[in-house]
Write a structure and sequence with these properties.
Layout (H helix, E strand, L loop, with lengths): L8 E3 L6 E5 L4 H13 L3 E5 L5 H12 L3 E4 L5 E4 L13 E2 L4 H12 L4 E5 L10 H9 L3 E5 L3 E7 L8 E3 L5 H12 L4 E6 L6 H8 L4 E6 L2 E7 L8 E3 L4 H13 L4 E8 L6 H8 L3 E10 L2 E9 L7 E2 L11 H10 L3 E4 L12 H11 L3 E5 L2 E5 L6 E7 L5 H11 L2 E7 L12 H9 L1
Bound molecules: shikimate-3-phosphate.
């Protein structure tokens, strides 16, 4: 999928954010709902699916491999699956756009099917490392030819039957974990993944919901996840909760803009995803949880966030897996706190949609924030609540979360902050600007 022409947009300080908002469906859960439904026998129904570009890429790829996927006018999606083992040979290369999750999880699915698939993507995705999935999927017998450095474009020649493996994750990555589990779905015997550091567990929860035989055991090596292959998945009715990673931008915006009071409805609060809210609370943020409930097997609540003075913290590195996508917006919160926030132990940020350490260091420096860059994080000297100087154009590097984070920074800047291209925001949060405008009144 090619991105539309660059679309710049400017932001500058204005009044408080007030009112109620909802966030779109969780991106991680939306990808998985489509993929598992595409492997079930029968028709699944999905409510609240994120209709962002990344998820639409997954839908298009699954259609190209035989699934029937329909969106009804009321926003409900219906997926008629092909059954585990039933994916068809696509006639063309699959274009993954900007989406790492689509690429890595679908590589896992293809690896144990007797089909050959070429994956291509945009400039950002084509710079990201795929070796981390190539390694275990090759051990299972798939034949993968990648571009130099283990990058896209790459070709996966799947194998059936594949060989079950027991794989210890060398990096804390839910995408790698899920790729191996998905390959295991069509592999005879039991495929095992050991994760020394727990990462988001949506695949495990949802695969069980679809009827897979999957167990999770705590061992002294970490979480051991075992999936029994040649599974038969049963169609499901799924409600996708709101994405905490999208809520994060508004939780920080409301915290740092004086006078703000925002209710963010329907936020997924799976503990493997809530590190940012914990960090913000440690900084003194005023975030309360209202109406806690369960939606689609995931904990959900409404979050009320009111402006509060923030103070610097040393961000505990063990929060990293549960807030890995939230560091860019945490850095913006830190830029408004009193004192010097240090966030380290997040080396993975170097290989996201952009190098989020370097990109945020450059962006915040450009708008007048004092930054020290480490190989695995940043130290940020906050303004103590004073407005930031601003007055710069930010290179967002095809990274939706950089664009949204720096838009929020613009809301507390004296001189306008221009994002060079906000088009990538549509990958995960197409209604971001509308929501912002509605709250800004
Ligand atoms: C995701 C896992 C994380 C996260 C990404 C979504 C997922 O990536 O950054 O946005 O849905 O499994 P890693 O597995 O690379 O940490």
């Amino acid at each position: 999928m090619s991105h539309p022409a660059a679309s710049p947009r400017s932001f500058v300080a204005h009044g408080p954010l007030r009112g109620q908002m909802t966030v779109p469906g969780d991106k991680s859960i939306s990808h998985r709902a489509l993929m598992f439904a595409a492997l079930a026998i029968g028709t699944s129904r999905i409510e609240g699916l994120l209709e962002g570009e990344d998820v639409l890429v997954t839908a298009a790829a699954l259609r190209a491999m035989g699934a029937t996927i329909i969106r009804h006018d009321d926003g409900i999606w219906e997926v008629s699956g092909v059954g585990v083992g039933g994916l068809l040979q696509p006639t063309q290369a699959l274009d993954m756009g900007n989406s790492g999750t689509s690429t890595r999880l679908l590589m896992g699915l293809v690896a144990s099917h007797p089909i050959t698939v070429t994956f291509v993507g945009d400039a950002s995705l084509s710079a990201r490392p795929m070796g981390r999935v190539i390694e275990p999927l090759s051990q299972m017998g798939a034949d993968i030819t990648a571009s130099p450095g283990g990058k896209l474009p790459l070709m996966v020649r799947g194998i059936c039957p594949a060989v079950p493996i027991s794989y210890t994750l060398p990096v804390a990555s839910a995408q790698v974990k899920s790729a191996v589990l998905l390959a295991g779905l069509n592999t005879p015997g039991i495929t095992r993944v050991i994760e020394p550091i727990a990462t988001r567990d949506h695949s495990e929860r949802m695969l069980k919901g679809f009827g897979a035989t999957l167990s999770v055991d705590e061992t002294n090596q970490g979480r051991l996840i075992s999936i029994t292959g040649e599974a038969e998945l049963k169609p499901q009715s799924i409600i996708v909760p709101g994405d905490p990673s999208s809520a994060a931008f508004f939780a920080v915006a409301a915290s740092i803009i004086p006078g703000s009071d925002v209710l963010i409805a329907n936020v997924g609060l799976n503990v493997t995803r809530t590190g940012l809210f914990s960090a913000l609370r440690m900084m003194g943020a005023d975030i309360t949880k209202e109406n806690p409930r369960e939606v689609g097997g995931e904990p959900v609540a409404d979050l009320r966030v009111r402006h509060a003075p923030l103070r610097a913290i040393d961000v505990p590195p063990d929060l990293a897996p549960s807030m890995i996508d939230e560091y860019p917006i945490l850095f913006v919160a830190a830029a408004l706190a009193s004192g010097r926030t240090v966030a380290r132990g997040a080396h993975e940020l170097r290989v996201k949609e952009s190098d989020r350490i370097a990109t945020m260091a450059a962006a915040l420096t450009a708008i007048g924030v004092e930054i020290e860059e480490f190989d695995d994080g940043l130290a940020i000297t906050g303004s103590g609540g004073a407005m930031l100087p601003g007055g710069a154009t930010i290179a967002s590097k095809l990274d939706h979360r950089i664009a949204m984070s720096m838009a929020v920074a613009g809301l507390v800047a004296q001189a306008s902050v221009t994002i060079d291209d906000v088009a990538p925001v549509a990958t995960s949060f197409p209604s971001f600007f509308e929501t912002l405008d509605a709250l800004a009144g």
